[in-house]
Known about the structure:
The chain has three domains: about 10-35 and about 80-190, Phosphorylase Kinase, domain 1, CATH 3.30.200.20; about 195-355, Transferase(Phosphotransferase), domain 1 (Orthogonal Bundle), CATH 1.10.510.10; about 360-454, Hepatocyte Growth Factor. It is built from 13 helices and 17 strands. The chain has helices at about 1-10, 15-25, 55-75, 85-90, 130-135, 140-160, 195-200, 205-220, 290-305, 315-325, 335-350, 395-405, 450-454; strands spanning about 95-100, 105-110, 115-125, 170-175, 185-190, 190-195, 230, 240, 245-250, 255, 270, 275, 365-370, 390, 410-415, 425-430, 435-445. Strand 8 (about 240) and strand 9 (about 245-250) form a beta hairpin. One 2-acetamido-2-deoxy-beta-D-glucopyranose binds near residues 223 and 334.
Amino acid sequence: xxxxxxxxxxxxxxxxxxxxxxxxxxxxxxxxxxxxxxxxxxxxxxxxxxxxxxxxxxxxxxxxxxxxxxxxxxxxxxxxxxxxxxxxxxxxxxxxxxxxxxxxxxxxxxxxxxxxxxxxxxxxxxxxxxxxxxxxxxxxxxxxxxxxxxxxxxxxxxxxxxxxxxxxxxxxxxxxxxxxxxxxxxxxxxxxxxxxxxxxxxxxxxxxxxxxxxxxxxxxxxxxxxxxxxxxxxxxxxxxxxxxxxxxxxxxxxxxxxxxxxxxxxxxxxxxxxxxxxxxxxxxxxxxxxxxxxxxxxxxxxxxxxxxxxxxxxxxxxxxxxxxxxxxxxxxxxxxxxxxxxxxxxxxxxxxxxxxxxxxxxxxxxxxxxxxxxxxxxxxxxxxxxxxxxxxxxxxxxxxxxxxxxxxxxxxxxxxxxxxxxxxxxxxxxxxxxxxxxxxxxxxxxxxxxxxxx
Length: 454
Ligand SMILES: Nc1ncnc2c1ncn2[C@@H]1O[C@H](COP(=O)(O)OP(=O)(O)OP(=O)(O)O)[C@@H](O)[C@H]1O
Ligand SMILES: *[C@@H]1O[C@H](CO)[C@@H](O)[C@H](O)[C@H]1NC(C)=O
Ligand SMILES: *[C@@H]1O[C@H](CO)[C@@H](O)[C@H](O)[C@H]1NC(C)=O
Ligand SMILES: *[C@@H]1O[C@H](CO)[C@@H](O)[C@H](O)[C@H]1NC(C)=O
């Protein structure tokens, strides 16, 4: 079988996706009744766990099935947004390659027949979740179903939650040739893993964008149509980047339940180094516990690493305030979003530049000239590895940056814009090579050798 599959895949055969996935699932061989109706794209009604399973596993299956059904009903029996893709698209997908896996699921990339690529998520038959369950109960089929409930839960959540910070569900397929639920494949927006180390080396503006996206996501989750949602397993590996935007991809450990309580003492939010006493509300729920848990996790996994370093000095007090207030849970998500937006406004409008000496007067501006593309001296954190390309508010700010760099003899403001709409400026040490460019302006230091000649 393996040989046949690799041969087929090399030819980009139509069944590539299905066959590879079947392989990935390690075909733990389901002895479950096959041939039930599933209708392909439609979610089959979840059957009760078979009687012959070990009682403990049966109980766990009942529980997950109940959770799933409650969740499916929660949006007021709401319209499930059905994705456009279904089993037919999956069977035509090619160029399947594994992207990654976790304890429960395996994720592959696949090219669609109509162009474009998706991420395919299915149960990881050889993953830790299934293995541990099999060790415990010795029932592979039941264990795979237990894991499948997690993916089904994720699909159900993705159908009802729509936000730029949540990976988009394009569709799903229930494989009727096996137990349709266990053979579920979710087709998702394709992303790339979040590389924290790499992110630490990107410009502050890009790191701020990631934190802001996260805050917007948490705001949405706190006020979602399903109630306040907590991400129980909140780690950078649950997120991917799509076109420079942060998106959560792993929702099987999300919960819409808020902890029940009788008194305030029942409501302690515990983290490894810290715990927060919360209030028990009149309706017997720990007030805001889901929102607070998300926010503190955002603080400890994202903000502390991404927010402070190399931020514009005038914004530092605001960022320190964000770090302090989220680290102590003084702010809720509403206030946090508000301060993030304030920082964005200060940054975009250039108000953070405050009163500074005017330095642009030390530069000669030459209209109608640009600089030949190619490298020059490097700086950090540049938007290009070929030279020194930085985001600026204005030519005035660029002049201040150029003055602070000993190699800099001048700069141009390029047509490129960052996500905040700020232009990128290219700083130069060698301005002997100006070329005519009707739309460009070159700023040359008066004291520079080329400046003096002009
Ligand atoms: N949409 C996607 N695009 C690209 N890669 C993805 C996508 N979704 C998930 N991945 C990759 O696949 C891995 C496993 O996915 P996922 O986190 O959903 O599985 P899991 O078994 O629930 O993992 P965990 O054990 O961390 O809970 C992720 O860590 C991520 O790197
Ligand atoms: C916030 O600031 C207070 C007062 O300076 C300090 O005691 C506290 O430790 C800070 N908390 C965090 C999370 O930085
Ligand atoms: C936060 O904002 C949401 C949405 O605007 C609003 O419904 C909610 O009441 C606010 N919560 C607090 C505590 O201000
Ligand atoms: C500046 O660029 C020109 C043309 O590319 C090159 O000939 C010259 O050597 C460069 N000067 C310096 C100091 O690098």
